[in-house]
Structure formats: structure tokens, C-alpha cells
Amino acid sequence: MLANKLGANVFVTEKNIISDEIKNIFSKNNIAFEEGHTQKAFQNADEILISAGIRPDSEILIKAQASKIKLTGELDFVMPNIKADKIICITGSNGKSTVTSLTGHILNKLALKTGTGGNLGTASAEFTSENFNAVVLELSSFQLERANNNLRSCVSVITNLAPDHIDWHGSYKNYVKAKAKILSLRNSDGVGIIQDRDADLLSSCDENSLNGKIITLSWNEKPVNNFYGHIFMSESQAFLIINGVKNKLFDYSDTDLIGAHNLENVAMSLCAVKMSFADKDVSDIKNLLSGFKPLPHRCERAGEINGVLYIDDSKGTNVAASVTAMKSIKFPKIIILGGQGKGEDYTPLAEAVKQECEEAVLIGEEAGKIKNALEKSGYTKIHMAGSMREAVDISYKLAKSGMCVLLSPACTSWDMYKNYKLRGEDFCNMVREKMLKV
Are 195 and 214 a contacting pair, CB within 8 Å? Predict the structure, then answer.
């Protein structure tokens, strides 16, 4: 739609069926389209805009590259047209949606006109028609893969790095290289915020990523890497240290978010706001964080039954996310794992289950593979379930007061549900059913 508004003669080619709602929008705006890719996609084209989700090895992209027509990714096309005083860009293997949403929440609390979206909800092109004090964008590795121009970001955040989408990028190195662009393409005076442990990996994949002002985060007061600044996560507070000066970011009691990983998310969000709007008073932390609720299906409280807490982390669709959730939640745990896999190695998952969980309940296509990995690690407290309902029933019978039941599948939902949201809702509904019966 942005290209149409800018006066381009637009033709849309979609491999799958286009909904009637979208067709009506195209019709109202005189946009031609086709269902199923044909040669029409290349006829009389001066430029081809590539949707972020198109795989590098897809037939349509291979043909597009051979056409010698200019190929442009979403970010290179949209970024120059965003109307904002400050742009904050956020990516990461896990936690990026929470950091994006929370950063936008804090900026709104500071009475700044803020647009929040990107890969999260509202498309970045929606922020091109009116002026904003700040625009906060979640960016995926797919979007960043095709970014080559300045992202215009005053702050770029990589929440963390772990293997994901290897099937799309071809290797972990390529995946990290795509993520690193959020740093190497930021403004020359922009700040980068990363995990201290990820610095060497980022530098090895993109030598320009750690140029300029970099702030690292770790749970050690003295970071391994010496950059512009450091976020120190202590036992009860987070601090921002710049030029040897240590200032408190927040007390952990200021937030209701569950898990150590969410404390890191809060710290990165507050740091991003401080670096973007240094003139704003952010001392009233409780007020700035108040009203922010965990994003659905991201370590969200589903309910409590007989002293057992049930947590919905259906968004945990890869090994790293589930390992982080397990290690961050300090309760004796029963974990529900499984779904459709991404070709990941389940050895790290098995080690985390062995260290963190009392029992494991397995569902979905990957149940057998996860079971094999658990048994190879020496873990034996395994229960197989044919459905989510059976998994919840088994967990309910096993759980004792003071424990938690954690749904964090480490897999996608596509073998049993259309998306992770429906999987999480199913889990929560079953927990509520049991709550009503107690």
C-alpha cells in the first residue's frame, strides 16, 4: 500500500489464495494482483519489493534475481519514509516482542507519541503517514537479511542469540549475520544493546556490528567485554554503568513479569528509553511499568490450582526459548514439551530438563525425538500424551503444591494447531476448566 501511495503502479503476485478482504482493498486502490506466481510478476517491472517471508531458495526469488530488475527488501523501502524523531529497532532469538512492546509502553507513559510494531502487529509502513516522537520496531531475521541501507535507529537492541530458523538462513552463522545488521546499519551515533556473551559471535559474523557505542548486559558487574556501557543484573536490582558511573535502572520488585529472562527484557527496555530520550525523567519506574502485562503465551500466568502455578509459554517455539524459560522460573517444574520441529538438536533441551524439571510430558510429532534425547541424557521421568488435554491431565495428577506446570514446547504448533496462540489458549482453557472443578 505504501508503494501505491507513493505513486507507483503496483502489481501484487501471491503464491497462495488472497482473502476477499484483501482483494477488496486492492480493488479500491486500483491495485492489480494474481494468485499463483506467473511471468506477469516481471513484465514491465522497474523494481521488485520482496516480502520478508519469501525463502532465499524459493523459485520466484531465483527468477527475480535472474531478471536483473532491482530487488528491494521491506526495510530498505519503508525506513526512509517513516516519520519519527527517533527510531528504536529490536531483534533477538527470544524476548524481542516483549522488549518492543514494553519499550513502546514506557514511551507512551512518558507522554511521547509512539508507534509500536514492525514484525510485531502493526506493519512498519503504517508509520509513514503521520509524525511520531518515536517508532519502536521489532525486526525479524528475515527482514534484516535483505536490509542494506541505514535503519535510522538511534538505538538497536539484540535481546539474545540462539540457533533458530536455520532451515531458512542455511546456517547459524548466516542467521547471526542477519541479526547483526540491526547494529551495523544503525545511525553512526546510535547505541547498540546486546548480551555480553553474544559480543564475540556478533563480531565474528559482522565485523562492523560492534562499532560505536555498545552497551552489554550480564549478571556479572564486570563484563567480559569492555564497551561504552554495561547493564549489571544484580540479585535484586539492575544497574546501568557508563564511564564508571553506576545508576540504578530498576528494582526487580517494580515488575510483575515472571522469570529472570523477563528482568533482562525490562532492563533492556529501560536502557533503550534512557539512551533515546536522555532528557526525560524515568525515575518513577513503578508508574512507567504499571499496566504492562506479559504478552499472551510468553510466560503468562494461566492459573493456580491447589498451590500449583500453571504457566503458558506457548510462544517458546525453539530450544533456546524453552531452556531460558525453564532456567528463569524458580519453582520445581513439570514441563510440557513437543510439537512440530525445526530440525534443532535436542541435546541442550534434554540437559536443561534434567537440571530443572521434576517431570516431562511430551506431545506432538517431535515427542519421540525429544524422548530419545531425554533418555540419552539419563532422564527417565517421561510421560507421553496424545493431546494437550491428556498432557494437562497428566501434569495435574503429578503436580504438588509449590510446583509449577510449564507449557514451553520448544517446537512450533503446526502439527496440532494453526499457531502458537491457539495452542496456548487451549492450554489455558483446560487449566480454567480444572480451576472451576476444584
Answer: no
**Residue 429 forms beta bridges with which residues?**
none
The DSSP element (H or E) to which 266 belongs, if any, is helix 260-276
Query: What does the block give as the cell for 298?
Result: 510468553
Residue type (1 letter), 413: S
- Share of residues in the chain with pLDDT > 70 (%): 100
For residues 72-99, average pLDDT: 95
> Got the DSSP string for 287-322?
HHHTT--PPTTSSEEEEEETTEEEEE-TT--SHHHH
Residues 180, 111 contacting (CB under 8 angstroms): no
DSSP codes joined into one string, 363-419:
-STTHHHHHHHHHHTT---EEE-SSHHHHHHHHHHH--TT-EEEE--SSBSTTTSSS
Lowest pLDDT segment from 274-278, 303-307, 329-333: 329-333
Average pLDDT over every residue of 94-105: 95
Q: d(Cα 355, Cα 118) in Å, to the nearest integer?
A: 37
**DSSP one-letter code for 18:** P
CA distance 284 to 118: 28
Spatial neighbors of 257 by CB under 8 A, at least 6 apart, are 98, 263, 265, 266, 292, 294, 299
Collapsing DSSP to helix, strand or coil, 16 comes out as coil
Cell of 362: 511430551
Alpha-carbon distance of 152 to 88, in angstroms, equals 8
Query: Grid coordinates in use for 336?
Result: 510440557
Grid cell for residue 274 = 534512557
* Cα separation values, 49 from 3, 24, 54, 75, 118, Å: 9, 21, 11, 10, 16
- In the block, which residue shows the cell 507513559? 109
Separation CA 16–CA 22 (nearest Å): 13
Closest CA to 37 of 64, 55, 3: 64
CA distances from 389 to 26, 163, 248, 280, 333 (A): 42, 30, 45, 49, 18
The answer to whether 93 and 262 have CB atoms below 8 angstroms apart is: no
* Total Cβ atoms within 10 A of residue 253: 10
Angstrom distance (rounded) from CA 391 to CA 431:
11
Query: At a CB cut-off of 8 Å and minimum separation 6, what does 111 contact?
Result: none
Taking each helix axis from N to C end, the angle separating 319-328 and 347-356, rounded to the nearest 10 degrees, works out to 10
The H or E element spanning position 65 is helix 59-66
Residue corresponding to grid cell 503476485: 13
pTM across the whole model: 0.83
